[in-house]
Amino acid sequence: MVEQQEASEDAVMTRIGQAIMLLHGGDREEARNRFGALWSELGADGDALHRCTLAHYMADTQDDPGDELAWDLRALTAAEGAGDGRAAEHRDLPAVRAFYPSLHLNLAADYLKLQRPDSARIHLRRARAAAESLADDGYGGGVRAAIDRLELRLREQ
């Protein structure tokens, strides 16, 4: 039973990965359609890592900054749900926590697009604080550099 559940969860991550490849390949509409179908399948009680990952990338398929913000907020809510009582021992909790710098960075960028610099600054501070736990590798360095770039843009506000 556990092996079947793990295989099913791997299939979900594979499908999310396929939609991400479509997004990165420039087919935002098809990626958005696939993410939407997966979101419906997962439902409100779906795996936190799946919901967080999916919402995080679904935000990137949105044309409207308000819709992008809504999906980024869903991603953060899913990540926070991974730490609640029922999921406290979730095996993917470290992976979900590693999303926090990027989640807050995206929210800061969303708020900046929506001309809400005070909200952007709040999430940028949270992104910087969360980024302290990232490794000094390409991902960690890239997130920290993106935080620095957005901070410079905010100073111009």
How would you classify the helix and strand content by structural class? mainly alpha
Alpha-carbon distance between the termini? 55 Å
**Percent in strands:** under 5%
Name the helix and strand elements from N-terminus to C-terminus, one letter apiece: HHHHHHHH
User: Rg to the nearest angstrom?
Assistant: 16 Å
- Biggest sheet, open or closed, and with what strands and sense? none
Overall geometry comes to globular
Taking pLDDT < 50 over at least 5 consecutive residues as the criterion, the unreliable ranges are 85-89
Provide the residue-averaged pLDDT: 89
- What is the percent of helical residues? over 70%
- Number of beta strands: 0
Number of helices: 8
What would you note in describing this structure?
This protein is an all-alpha fold. It is 76% helix and 0% strand. It has 8 helices and no strands.
